[in-house]
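look at this:
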Amino acid sequence: MPAIVKADDDFLYVLKFRGAGQGKRALVSEILGGELARAIGLHVPELVLMNLDNSFSKTEPDEEIQDLLKFSVGLNLGLHFLSRAITYDPLVGEVDALTASKVVLLDSIISNIDRTAKNTNLLQWNKELWLIDHGASFYFHHNWNTWEQHLERTFPLIKDHVLLPKATQLETAAIDIKQVLNPELVDRIIESIPEAWLETDMNDMSTEAVKAAYKAFICSRINKIDELVKEANHAR
């Protein structure tokens, strides 16, 4: 349950609560997916860390929302609100083949299961395509005991991607992505995640081990991007 809020810089943001649904892991996915998308030239709203104090829940009459606000006190994630943006409609929306191909490969890399015709998680704003909501990505991190099993997998669910029919330049997109997404850049994105969001319920897994796992997963996907291209082309 995100909310539109006005921050102390007087801008509006869509606030993603750490106390909601999948909790901190969804916020980690938002940062990783959003900043990887931005790095390869796709449009993503500005991502900011937002501090929520404990005063908001005291004036909220709904008990369920009260609990959400209480569990979310502290650092949360905000996305700059795109005023007057409209949801991308695959039947009438326009997107060029290279952009569509980059989005498809990005979602293959981050294992994003939530960019389908039923829920595109794409906006059109100022005649441009903008990507939002990457919280369902990196689903391997919901079970750290088996994360290494995902290193050798591809992403068959790409067959349901809303932009797949328009992704006719996958090979060109792959070349562009490989030139940009190097290990150093991946490190910088991972290091931007608040340390507290990386803590797990596994006593033997430190936050540094979690960072290393995210890096290993992302780099494994980039290294097999040609396989991801073949998989997407076959599905298309």
About this structure: The beta strands are 3-6, 12-16, 47-52, 74-80, 86-87, 122-125, 128-131. The first strand starts at residue 3 and ends at 6.
